[in-house]
């Protein structure tokens, strides 16, 4: 599955993308905000991630810049405790450019088309920038703080939980 936004091109992750993934994510400042990426992040981690099978219900995308194909980060839908969870990372060189919000809007459109009724997400409490992205996308805080394992930090970390109904009438009110 492919998706084009105003400034980005989202495409499936292929095994040969491992180097681009590695160069974008092998940064402690990126990994420390992710639940499933270990630190130090090694080349084999990127190879394994890029080789994961494609799940048509829960797609993952490499976020790239059209034209030159430069990788910006990754975004996708993962199953989490019976719900669809949006997760993403953006390479440090591309922070504060609105790419996470733009890619997130695309993934929410895809999730609606695929029939997901609800999406959840969370951010570690010491990463308020992700909270701002989630709120821009229409996610609402659930009022719950969860303790989630962070492989990058090697410990459990407090995370603020968010949810978004993908019902079309609610989405129109949020826009």
TrEMBL record:
Keywords: Acyltransferase, Transferase. Residues 8-167 form the N-acetyltransferase domain. Transmembrane segments: none annotated. PROSITE patterns: GNAT. GO terms for molecular function: acyltransferase activity, transferring groups other than amino-acyl groups. Belongs to the acetyltransferase family. RimJ subfamily. This is GNAT family N-acetyltransferase. It comes from Pontixanthobacter aestiaquae.
């Amino acid at each position: 599955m492919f998706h084009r936004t105003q400034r980005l091109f989202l495409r499936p992750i292929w095994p040969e993308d491992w180097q681009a993934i590695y160069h974008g994510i092998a940064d402690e400042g990126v990994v420390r905000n992710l639940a499933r990426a270990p630190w130090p992040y090694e080349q084999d981690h990127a190879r394994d991630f890029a080789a994961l099978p494609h799940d048509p219900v829960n797609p993952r995308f490499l976020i790239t810049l059209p034209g030159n194909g430069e990788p910006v980060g990754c975004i996708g839908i993962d199953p989490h405790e019976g719900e669809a969870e949006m997760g993403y990372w953006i390479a440090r060189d591309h922070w504060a450019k609105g790419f996470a919000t733009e890619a997130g809007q695309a993934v929410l459109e895809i999730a609606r088309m695929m029939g997901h009724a609800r999406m959840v997400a969370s951010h570690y409490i010491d990463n308020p920038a992700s909270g701002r992205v989630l709120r821009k996308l229409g996610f609402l805080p659930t009022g719950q703080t969860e303790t989630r394992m962070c492989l990058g930090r090697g410990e459990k970390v407090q995370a603020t939980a968010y949810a978004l109904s993908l019902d079309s009438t609610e989405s129109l009110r949020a826009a």
